[in-house]
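Weekly sync, protein design subgroup
Attendees: M.S., D.O., the rotation student, P.L. (late)

Item 1: inverse folding check
M.S. brought a backbone from last month's batch and wanted to see whether the design step gives back something sensible before we order anything. D.O. pointed out we never logged the input encoding, so this time it goes straight into the notes. Structure tokens as presented (80 positions):
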């Protein structure tokens, strides 16, 4: 749905085949997003395979848990 609403503004409607242009734009975006996510996965895998990361992982999990509990409390106590 995103591509159908966002990408058509960059396509010339008078071009020979706008459907193919939309397909190429969509495939280009998907390829770039896949490469970016792959780079993040490789970097994260390398970073969390180090020996010292178990301590930092526990700290990160604790901070994330406190934040989620805080957000749940805010939602529960919201008057709207």
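Designed sequence read out in the meeting:
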């Amino acid at each position: 749905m995103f591509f159908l609403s966002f990408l058509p503004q960059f396509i010339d409607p008078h071009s020979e085949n706008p459907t193919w242009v939309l397909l190429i734009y969509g495939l280009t975006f998907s390829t770039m997003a896949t490469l970016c996510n792959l780079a993040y996965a490789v970097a994260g895998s390398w970073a969390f395979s180090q020996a010292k990361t178990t301590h930092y992982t526990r700290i990160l999990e604790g901070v994330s848990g406190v934040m989620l509990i805080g957000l749940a409390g805010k939602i529960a106590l919201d008057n709207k």
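Discussion: The chain has a mean pLDDT of 87. The radius of gyration is 22 Å.
Action: P.L. to compare against the previous round before Friday.
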